[in-house]
Each structure stands twice: as structure tokens, then as C-alpha cells.
């Protein structure tokens, strides 16, 4: 049961369980967060190479169309016919000049402007729309669009700061580290319906404490461990965060002593699965970036992916993965990325742990009653930290969340 | 080279495939493949668009064995039972003697505290060869229509 009184105003070290289960709160989140003053990731320019190309995605839980218009500009609008609310475009992607509703063939241009209403003047002087019907009163809500490094962000709000100031200097610079202006090559998609609250996905990626314990595969192969050189960095608002770490060795140490199921004797029969090469100028081998309110940018070794969170209801969300490389990747690099993708996605050797544990978390708190999630690791602060044994980015996230939700 | 395809032997290969994934021992499952093999579980939208990304990609029997070991020892997941239903097995002999086999599949999944559900629906696009009197998979692609995965794929399709 939701009781605001049991969440003291200054508290970011505890989150009551109803925050993950209350459907009325979820509806407010969709309005305030996803339809509010935020930039949501909606796709890549590389997915819309030609004028007229479009894709259908969701902004929060609302279906939207993102398209490249005949002038080459990226546009977006609500995928809902102004007539009777029908989902206008029923294909996931394609190429169109006009978007025509299948029901009564109302047609819209690439900006969602209503261009055609069949029988608007009636047939043989019978029927038709009333005299005072004005087509231009029925344009669909257009989205603000912002593109950075080939990545498309959209918002229902048209007076947002640009992406650079939205992300903050640190997060913008790490974003640009991956999206450095090179052409992106989409390698493919993977989708999951995860039976948990959408915020649990962000918590998971913002939490390096679990990564060094739950992910036996990662730790076993030295891809992410508590004893590695690491940082957790946020933007000033706390909305976005970075987990940055360097690959270590495969060995037992202090940092693995508390891991009850570490497999130090696990040697791969086919080592090509993990054959990472350095490809970025710095020494970080893992950078996991969370961008408020719906994006995770993943660089784990050479597997690069955008994970888009599409909330469905308080108890479930879709996670859409887009794996990519660069236009200048050679065939060896493409194969390397494809093999390392085994770590991630719906069957990932690492990420499977996460989707499973998120389900168990939701199962555990389902009734929402009388309990709270504890986020005390690393203290009570919300400032950057230079180690992994911390839940600081979760606290920062809830600091921002509480501000936006006025909760 | 015989032109008659031994449908019983083929049926048996797919039966054994399902049995090993559903009832185990899972460790014996890679033996149904050649050393140099390809196994992909790939969502239909990627496959149709010519996008190479697979949800599961094993490029040798060693990688299959590594996956099995990870399922056994490193991945954390809720206990579950799977039942593979494989139907419409259709072989076609290639000029080199290998069989190109298509089949439909569905995999039912049961979690301990929930009703059974369909985990995945799709088709197999396989290449099967005869080695030492037995049929083995040289290639297996599980192309799944159900691109939205209900939570997690732990076991192979």
C-alpha cells in the first residue's frame, strides 16, 4: 500500500516497496517522467538511412513513429490516429511518405500533420464533416527531436535544454566516447519482457556492488570485479550515471573471497568467445551509462549495445537491445562483437542473471506492503566514488526521481 | 551415395535433441553437433533483415560445451522445465550429400510456481550430415518468431 508518509522527504537510502508496485504511481511516472521534461532514446539515424524510412517505438508506454522526412530531417509524432485512436502504423519499420490509418484512411505527413480525411465533403452532397471541422486542428502531437552522434532522442516537450547540457559534461563526454561521429552499423536486435518494475533495470545497471557478486561469469573471467580500478560518476542532477572499470585477471583474491560460487577453474573450451581488443583511447574496458529516463549504453569489452527501457505497467517492462558496431569495423571485429554478444541480451551469459534477479525482486515485493529497499552501501552520499562497493548511483537516481515526481 | 533419406534416423536425431535439452544430461547435447559447427538462436526480425546478431551464438562444439557449463555453474536463474515440440521435419538432400532440414518447433516452459507458457515458437533451419553412421548437426539455426522473449532464455532452443 502506498503511503507517502513512510518515505521521509530527504531519504534516498531507502525506497519503499510500493514505489515498484503501485499502478497509480506508475501512471504518474509515465506522465511526469516519460512525457515530461526528458529526452528519451528512440533509435539510431543508421536505422533510417533513406528519406521516408520510419520505425515505430515507444516513448514511455506510448507508441510513437520516428521517421526521416523528404528533406532528410528526423521527425517524430504520436502513433495514434486523431480520429478514433487507432494505432496508425502497424508495421515495426518501413518506408512511407504518408501514414494512412487503416480504419478510415485518414492520412498524415512525416510530422504527423493531418493531410487527408476521406469523404470530408460527403458523397453526393450527403454526409461529410460539419462546416466547422478544420483539418489543421487534428494534427498529431509532434515530438521534439535531438540527435547526437547518430543517436536519436525525442520528447513530448519542445523547450528542453540541448543534449549536452541535459547529460552534463562528464556524461556527455563518455557518451561521445562511443558515439564519436563514426557511422554506426546495426548488428541486430534482442527483446525481452521482464516481469519487474522498470526502475529495477536502472538500479541494476547503476549498482556495481551486485556485478562483482551475482555475475559469476564476469568475475570468473576478470571482466568486472570489485578489486578493479573503477569509478561511479553522476551528472549534477543524479539522473544519469556511469560505471567505469578496467578489466582484471582471472584469479582468486580478497575481492572474490565473499563470492560463494566463484569458478576459478573454469576455462573456456573455445576462447574466441572472449577475445577482447582495446578500441577506445582510455583504459576503461567496461562503461555502463544510464541516461534518464529510458536508456542504457553498454560497452563491455567489444560488445556495444543500446538498451531501451519501455515500461508496460508497474510490474513489467520491455527491454529492447540494439547491438551495433561501426561502419569501419573489419570482418574480424564484426565477428568479435557478435561472439561477445553472448554475454548480453535475452540469453546473455551475464545479463541473464539480471533479468532473472529482477523478476525475483518483483516477486519478493509484489504485495508492496511494509518494507523498503536498502541502499546504504558506500554510505549515504550522492557524490562520485572511485570504487565499486557502493550504491551511490542508486541514491543519486532516487534523489532525482523524487524531485521530478515531487514525491 | 544413397538417395533415400532415412527418415527414422532423422526423427531419432531430433528426438534425441529434444530429450537432451529437456531431460538431460545437458552435457551430452553438444555431442549431437560436429566439432566445427554453427548454432544460432536468432530472432526472426534479425534473420529476415539479414542482420547477423543472434541471441545465442556458438561457432564450435567447444562453445556449446562452454554454454552448457555456464548454465550449470555460473548463470543464476529460477529452476525451470522445458519441453521441446518439434514437428514437420522436412529434409532435402544437397548435392554434397548433406541434408538441409527445416522443422517447426515450440518450447514450453514451466516455472515452479507458475502455469506453463510458450517460451519460444519458430523454425529450425539445419544442416545435418552423416558421420560414422550417425547423423550430426553441422549447422542449426533456431529462428524464433516470438521475438519478445518472456524474460530469459537460459537453455538453448
Tell me what the structure shows.
The complex is a heterodimer of chains A (407) and B (157). Chain A is of the alpha+beta class. In chain A, 21% of the residues lie in helices and 26% in strands. Chain A has helices at 23-34, 163-167, 169-178, 198-205, 208-211, 216-220, 254-257, 331-340, 351-365, 392-405; strands spanning 14-16, 40-44, 53-59, 62-68, 74-78, 93-95, 99-100, 107-108, 114-116, 144-148, 151-155, 184-194, 230-234, 241-245, 286-291, 295-300, 303-313, 316-326, 372-374. Chain A has a 7-stranded antiparallel beta sheet, with helices on both faces. A 4-stranded antiparallel beta sheet of chain A has the order 5-4-3-6, with no helix packed on it. Chain A is globular. In chain A, 47% of the residues are buried. Helix content of chain B is 22%, strand content 45%. Chain B has helices spanning 7-22, 44-49, 61-73; strands spanning 33-43, 56-58, 80-93, 99-111, 117-131, 134-144, 148-150. Chain B has 157 residues and is α+β, with helices and mostly antiparallel strands. Chain B has a 6-stranded mixed beta sheet. The longest helix of chain B is centred in the first third of the chain and has 16 residues, at 7-22. Chain A binds chain B through residues 92, 186-195, 214, 216-217, 220, 261, 263, 266, 268-270, 272-273, 318, 323, 334, 338-339, 341-342, 345-347, 349, 352-353, 355-357, 359-360, and chain B through 41-43, 45-46, 49, 51-60, 62-63, 65-67, 69-70, 73-78, 147-154.
Amino acid at each position: 500500500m502506498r503511503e507517502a508518509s513512510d518515505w521521509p522527504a530527504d531519504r534516498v537510502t531507502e525506497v519503499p516497496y510500493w514505489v515498484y508496485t503501485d499502478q497509480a504511481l506508475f501512471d504518474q511516472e509515465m506522465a511526469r517522467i516519460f512525457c515530461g521534461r526528458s529526452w528519451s532514446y528512440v533509435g539510431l539515424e543508421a536505422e533510417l538511412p533513406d528519406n521516408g524510412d520510419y520505425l515505430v517505438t515507444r516513448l514511455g508506454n506510448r507508441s510513437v513513429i520516428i521517421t526521416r522526412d523528404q528533406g532528410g530531417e528526423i521527425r517524430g509524432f504520436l502513433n495514434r490516429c486523431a480520429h478514433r485512436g487507432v494505432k496508425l502504423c502497424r508495421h515495426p519499420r518501413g518506408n512511407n511518405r504518408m501514414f494512412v490509418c487503416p480504419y478510415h484512411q485518414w492520412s498524415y505527413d512525416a510530422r504527423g500533420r493531418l493531410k487527408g480525411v476521406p469523404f470530408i465533403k460527403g458523397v453526393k452532397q450527403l454526409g461529410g464533416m460539419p462546416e466547422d471541422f478544420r483539418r489543421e486542428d487534428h494534427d498529431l502531437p509532434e515530438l521534439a527531436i535531438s540527435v547526437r552522434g547518430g543517436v536519436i532522442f525525442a520528447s513530448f516537450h519542445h523547450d528542453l535544454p540541448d543534449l549536452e547540457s541535459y547529460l552534463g559534461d562528464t556524461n556527455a563526454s563518455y557518451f561521445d566516447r562511443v558515439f564519436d561521429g563514426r557511422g554506426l552499423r546495426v548488428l541486430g536486435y534482442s527483446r525481452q519482457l521482464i516481469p519487474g518494475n522498470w526502475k529495477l533495470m536502472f538500479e541494476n545497471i547503476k549498482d556495481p556492488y551486485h556485478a562483482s557478486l551475482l555475475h559469476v561469469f564476469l568475475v570468473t573471467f576478470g571482466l568486472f570485479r570489485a578489486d578493479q580500478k573503477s569509478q561511479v560518476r553522476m551528472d549534477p542532477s543524479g539522473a544519469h550515471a556511469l560505471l567505469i572499470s578496467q578489466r582484471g585477471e582471472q584469479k582468486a583474491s580478497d575481492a572474490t573471497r565473499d563470492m560463494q560460487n566463484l569458478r576459478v577453474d573454469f576455462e573456456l573450451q573455445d576462447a574466441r568467445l572472449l577475445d577482447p581488443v582495446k578500441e577506445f583511447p582510455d583504459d576503461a574496458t567496461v562503461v555502463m551509462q544510464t541516461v534518464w529516463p529510458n536508456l542504457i549504453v553498454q560497452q563491455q569489452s567489444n560488445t556495444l549495445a543500446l538498451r531501451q527501457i519501455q515500461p508496460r505497467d508497474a510490474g513489467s517492462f520491455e527491454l529492447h537491445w540494439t547491438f551495433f558496431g561501426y561502419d569501419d569495423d573489419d570482418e574480424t571485429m564484426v565477428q568479435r562483437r557478435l561472439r561477445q554478444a553472448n554475454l548480453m541480451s535475452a540469453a546473455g551469459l551475464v545479463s541473464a542473471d539480471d533479468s532473472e534477479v529482477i523478476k525475483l525482486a518483483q516477486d519478493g515485493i509484489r504485495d508492496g506492503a511494509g518494507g523498503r529497499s536498502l541502499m546504504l552501501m558506500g554510505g549515504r552520499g550522492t557524490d562520485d566514488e572511485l570504487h565499486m562497493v557502493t550504491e551511490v548511483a542508486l541514491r543519486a537516481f532516487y534523489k532525482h526521481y523524487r524531485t521530478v515526481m515531487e514525491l | 551415395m544413397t538417395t533415400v533419406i532415412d527418415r527414422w534416423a532423422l526423427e531419432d536425431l531430433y528426438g534425441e535433441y529434444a530429450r537432451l535439452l529437456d531431460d538431460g544430461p545437458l552435457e551430452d547435447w553438444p555431442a549431437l553437433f560436429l566439432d566445427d559447427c554453427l548454432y544460432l538462436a536468432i530472432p526472426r526480425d534479425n534473420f529476415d533483415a539479414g542482420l547477423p546478431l543472434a541471441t545465442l551464438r556458438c561457432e564450435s562444439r567447444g562453445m556449446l560445451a562452454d554454454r552448457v557449463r555456464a548454465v550449470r555453474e555460473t548463470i543464476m536463474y529460477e529452476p525451470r522445465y522445458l519441453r521441446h515440440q518439434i514437428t514437420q521435419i522436412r529434409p532435402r538432400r544437397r548435392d554434397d550429400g548433406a541434408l538441409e532440414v527445416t522443422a517447426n518447433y515450440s518450447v514450453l516452459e514451466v516455472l515452479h510456481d507458475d502455469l506453463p507458457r510458450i517460451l519460444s515458437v519458430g523454425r529450425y533451419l539445419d544442416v545435418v550430415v552423416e558421420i560414422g553412421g550417425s547423423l550430426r548437426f553441422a549447422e542449426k539455426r533456431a529462428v524464433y518468431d516470438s521475438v519478445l522473449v518472456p524474460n530469459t532464455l537460459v537453455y538453448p532452443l
